[in-house]
TrEMBL record:
<feature type="compositionally biased region" description="Basic residues">
    <location>
        <begin position="72"/>
        <end position="82"/>
    </location>
</feature>
<keyword id="KW-0175">Coiled coil</keyword>
<dbReference type="Pfam" id="PF13007">
    <property type="entry name" value="LZ_Tnp_IS66"/>
</dbReference>
<feature type="domain" description="Transposase IS66 central">
    <location>
        <begin position="165"/>
        <end position="443"/>
    </location>
</feature>
<protein>
    <submittedName>
        <fullName>Transposase IS66</fullName>
    </submittedName>
</protein>
<dbReference type="InterPro" id="IPR024463">
    <property type="entry name" value="Transposase_TnpC_homeodom"/>
</dbReference>
<feature type="domain" description="Transposase TnpC homeodomain">
    <location>
        <begin position="20"/>
        <end position="91"/>
    </location>
</feature>
<feature type="compositionally biased region" description="Polar residues">
    <location>
        <begin position="41"/>
        <end position="71"/>
    </location>
</feature>
<dbReference type="InterPro" id="IPR004291">
    <property type="entry name" value="Transposase_IS66_central"/>
</dbReference>
<feature type="region of interest" description="Disordered">
    <location>
        <begin position="41"/>
        <end position="87"/>
    </location>
</feature>
<feature type="coiled-coil region">
    <location>
        <begin position="3"/>
        <end position="30"/>
    </location>
</feature>
<dbReference type="Pfam" id="PF03050">
    <property type="entry name" value="DDE_Tnp_IS66"/>
</dbReference>
<dbReference type="InterPro" id="IPR052344">
    <property type="entry name" value="Transposase-related"/>
</dbReference>
Amino acid sequence: MAESEKDQIIRKLKAENKGLQEQIAYLRRKLFDHKSEALNPNQTSLFDKENSVFNEPEQTGDQSISASNQVRPKKSKKKTRREKVDSKVPVRVTIIKPADGKCPAGHSGIEPIGTSYVREEFHFIPAHAYLEKIYEQTYKCEQCAHDTATSGLFKPLVPPALFPHSLASVSLVAEIIYDKFVLGVPLYRQLSGIRRLGYQTSEATLANWVNKSAQQLLPLYEELHRHLCSAHHLQGDETPIEVLREPGKAATSRSYMWVARTPIKQPNPIVYYAYSATRSGVFAQSLYEGYLGVLQCDGYSGYNLLGNSVHRTGCWAHVRRKFYDASQSHIKGSDDLLHLIDEMFALEREWQAYSPRVRRRRRRSRLRKVLKRFWRLIDRTEVLPQSRLGKAIVYAQKQRPYLDRIINDGVIDWSNNAAERNMKSLVIGRKNWLFSTSTQGAEATAIWMTFIESAKANHIDPRQYLTDLLKASTILPAFPKSEELGAYLPWNYRRQQNMGQRKDNNETQATTFAA
């Protein structure tokens, strides 16, 4: 019997109603629920075939006996809450002595016979500032005057200023940049602290220092991009930012910050940020111009313009997020798919410390089976295309060619989370800065975030790295060569720091032995 027009309308309205209920539940959860995507292992699905209250099968007597004969696992040590202090922190030993040099009875001539440990305290010295007045001394060399028949007068070479005709020092600008891009403190809030230290200035002056110093280090920023494009594997992501005074755009319009980085397993890690006025794929072409390797990214269509020169792979974290949203809306069939994805991630965690070659072999032998089960279940699942689960399935099917490629590559990660964590550092700061006033400020943000996040990836102290980069900006030529910039690349800088520390340790040991 053919379906009447009335029945068709009713079926359509029911489908729309179900979709709206899913959307309301999703938005309510986004507003009021916790943000973590972790699953509760003790929570059972509402749509399991067997709604038994038992999570384990009932035991027989034989099973109990065999279980009692097994060796019990050792209890894990209870975690302590004791604080840890880095070994690099200088140590000062304080021995408590009588204030008057006498015993409690008032006798003098006391002698120490030993010490006993009391406690440890971690001290903090607040910031202090001082004004440095620099003069150049004039000298006269009598020998030069006699040999050259001149006055023999000379002056020593004065170190160049960070900015001509400015009170800005390397230490001050480095601290401003560190506080803004590492700690997320906006310039206007830093300004009050600087004024309390005795220096009266304006927020515009601080912004000019940040922008101008970034432009001075633009050659090193471009050198990092050149090294980035020579890598074999990259991960990419993008996020919106707001720029108030952008030519041809309203103040409330969206601009974008792009990030590209090497995978965690790769040596000499680079984290590169780039500002763009749009999210157009044309900018993706310019960002990855000359790159011929593997790029892991999400399903954004702008990456399609990269062409066949870039071998794209997908991200399972983006796929999982959509199935997680469907599972939280209690849509039948989403739990089984989500558990299969979690099984993939569990295997990946086991192989995290393995070499790329071993990880590729494990993926092909074990992970491929789970992946086939996932795609078979996808093909069998019947769901409305506009539902939350339907959208998750459509996204996974469109990304299937890119997702399957990860099986044959042991270098690339199973997800793009490393790039997203770097983007999160920017997003946390963005919540405090709110916006960039100009395009120059947005470009400076990209430059400084590149140096800071690359320093973190190479296990370098960002504050010390920023200080040395600002010092280098005063002595590098206007158009430095690659070999002149090489010493300031994060991995080369780290090696120099390690060599300097080993040298200092050897000198300290030699001094101790001599004493």
